Amino acid sequence: MALEAVFFDLDGTLADTAPDLVGALATVLQQRGMPAPEYALARALAGHGSVALLGLAGITPEQSDFSLWQQDYLSAYQQRVHQDSRLFDGVNALLQGLAAKGLAWGIITNKPQRFAEDLLPKLGFACAPAAVVCGDTCAEAKPSVLPMHHTCRLAGVAAENCLYVGDAERDMQAGRAAGMQTVLARWGYIPAHEQPEQWDWDFAADTPVDILSLPCFTD
């Protein structure tokens, strides 16, 4: 593979956004006199969206007032989207390593654009991404291939010459379907009940900088 670019999921891969995602849930619950969720359990679901997080409190889409809960949660998150979120250790070293190799990088996230636009400038990336595609950029989000192909077009690269790094099964599915090689981010948000070893990925990394030692970089 003539590697051209490395694309990343955002929540749980590039950035530890759980403090704000879970914090917003705690705010909404406490406003209603309900206890905050156990942080470790909620953190593992932080990359799975508002439905999963609200589900921890027994709030499901089948409830007649679910849309109100969801709106309140998203409003609370908007108020603190970058309050405590940080890049994972080693992310900027990884990005600098990619730049030194002449490789582009980008972000493919299911996070809505309005949140990503507020968050990304505050994270302090060492260099700018070649492309950012959000959950509502295309007609479908991951695990669809649409955002994967759109990102390749924006970055001017071929999917078969790209890596996609993520911490969820949908990331591996989307990358594989697009023809990219995939990397499981073991440091991310992986719930205890899931079995990532059974996901269809090409490589796995324990830390961001470990990615630079993968065979596709050293061959």
TrEMBL record:
* GO cellular component terms, semicolon-separated: cytosol
Catalyzed reactions: 2-phosphoglycolate + H2O = glycolate + phosphate
Q: Name one GO molecular function term.
A: metal ion binding
Q: Which UniProt keyword terms apply here?
A: Carbohydrate metabolism, Hydrolase, Magnesium, Metal-binding
Instruction: State the Gene Ontology BP annotations.
Output: DNA repair
Class of enzymatic activity (EC top level): hydrolase
Q: Extract the Pfam families matched here.
A: HAD_2
Q: What is its EC number?
A: 3.1.3.18
Origin superkingdom: Bacteria
Q: What does this protein do?
A: Specifically catalyzes the dephosphorylation of 2-phosphoglycolate. Is involved in the dissimilation of the intracellular 2-phosphoglycolate formed during the DNA repair of 3'-phosphoglycolate ends, a major class of DNA lesions induced by oxidative stress.
UniProt protein name: phosphoglycolate phosphatase
